[in-house]
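Thread: "does anyone have the structure for this chain?"

Original post by V.I.:
We have the sequence but no experimental structure in hand. Need at least a predicted one for the grant figures.
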Amino acid sequence: MRTKNVVCVYSFIMLSICGLSQNTFVPDDNFEQALIDLGFDVAPLDDLVPTANINTITNLDVNSKSISDLTGIEDFTALEVLNCENNLLSVLDVTNNLSLTQLFCSTNNISSINISPLLDLQIFWCLNNRLTTLNTTQNTKLISLVCGNNLLTNLDVTNNPLLNVLVFLNNQISSIDISKNSTLSTLNCSNNFITNLNISNNQNLVNLYCSNNQINNINTSQNPLLYIIDLSFNLFEALDLSQNSQLSEIDCSNNNLCTLNIRNGNNNSINAFNFSNNANLNCVVVDNTTANHSAWQPFLFTNYVTSQNDCNVFVNIDSFNDYVGVSYTLPTLNYGAYYTASGGTGNTLFAGDIINTSQTIYIYNETVCSSNESSFNVLITTDDYYIPKYFTPNNDGNHDLWLVRDFVNNIKTVTIFDHYGKLLKSLPPNVGWNGTFDGKLMETNDYWYVITFYSGDVLRGHFTLKR
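Reply from O.Q.:
Generated one for you, tokens below.
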């Protein structure tokens, strides 16, 4: 009789174990309730779901169910599509779900996920999480990867040759190699730290979004299908879209553009074009200058040309005449800064500085596009008049006139002669000679002057004309 009781107890234990082995532990009540709502379990909530009810399911959608723990998903062994977006998950273990081809886990709090065992995975969307790393090197069948709004600093997609969609906006990635992704049609890398982007191998690219990065150069000549391109808020100085005839939407605003060429033979198909806030851009190359560009931004821009040769990169610069006197105070500048040497070198001078020594002062202005420079001479003297020893009338803005300066109004006339004594010019003081006679340029040589003073005194001397 005792042996019979032991056998009964043992049988009961075994039956209990077998019964338990037919259930899947689902501790999250919201997850279990979602499975009840889908007909895979029955009330009441008991943290158990019959395994037989779930191990053949191929598609599971538990989107927006306030689930914080997806324990139990490991028994969904036939699962091909899982949507657990918009929940409260911090951990997601899908390493047992080897049949997955589509995984959507966006908008959770997931900090890490292992998808390496999912060799058949084709679509993986995990945006709006807290991922710091993501390894897709084993997922060679991926066609769509959306991992924006995470904390990624690196992303390797060189082993994903079938990628058609790649979106990793709002991360911390500084470089990306997409040379192996020849089928890529949509790329969104906006709001990262990318400095260089090579799209020469992506000939199927249709949509390109790369705003808010640090890119200063891009070549789109190998991307004939480009339809939308957003390169706003970068560091571009030149942009040539002349080979992209399919473009419909363009945004290259808020850059450092010096040149912009949109002469692609199909300007009429451009529905939206924004190149605002490029301070140094003074013209845009287009198909037809008389076409209607009123919808393009900036709206008041009018300097459209048909050739880059018609665009002059101009840098404003202030310029002043030579000065002769006891001292000189540097005036305020609108364009440029003062230097003691050419090219923005030497010592820096400032408006209001008093110059007490004779010197050449340079004004230099530089933009991202080009630079410009002017200069003027300051001659410090206490004499009543100044007679230059030479001049160079070549219209460069420096010493273009031979000019006698009279500081105390003692000079009556200044006459100029060639070395044969022929009179070339008679003029009052403080008026310069440009080195011509009867409309002809005079040759490089020495010339003579006679200065007559109101006192009757006469001063003779010579100076040099240099060309």
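V.I.: this helps a lot. The longest helix spans residues 2-21.
O.Q.: and Confidence is low (pLDDT under 50) at residues 1-20.
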